[in-house]
Amino acid sequence: MKGVFKDMKKLKQLLPSLREKKRYVLFEILSNKQHDAKSIINSLTHNYTQFHGELNLAHAGLLPLFDTFSKNKGIIRINNLHVDDLRAALTLVSSIDQEQVIMRSLSVSGVLNKVKNKIAG
What's the pLDDT tens digit per position in 13-57? Predict the structure, then answer.
């Protein structure tokens, strides 16, 4: 089996100018109850696909950073061209687990540490 992979060339890394650029969106949920990250993301992706479609969701590369969720705040990584779509989808979320909520974006940044500092502060 090792002989098969011996002839394969190592893939070159993409140039920085060809990589997709990403943004980190800090959001909060105004609610009387604490919600778990999984139900928040399920509700958000459902509303995103209803408003923008599955193809746009795939192009957006929506990636929740589950380790950053705390006290109804969280961070989502997304392609820089789809930040406005995500902000629109956040405003469309009206309920999570049959409870009325308001979701809003607090900050957008290209650097994760800047957004993490805003959660703590």
Answer: 889 888 889 999 999 999 999 988 999 999 999 999 999 999 999
CATH class of the domain at 21-110:
alpha beta
Cβ atoms < 10 Å from Cβ of 63: 14
Q: What amino acid is encoded at 39 in this protein?
A: S
Model pTM above 0.90: no
Residue type at position 43: S
Residue pair 29/96 in contact (Cβ under 8 Å)? The answer is yes
Domain boundaries, the chain: 21-110
Q: Residues near 80 by Cβ (< 8 Å), separated by ≥ 6? A: 20, 21, 22, 23, 110
Q: Which residues contact 110 (CB under 8 A, 6 or more apart)?
A: 21, 22, 23, 24, 80
The SS3 call for residue 24 is: strand
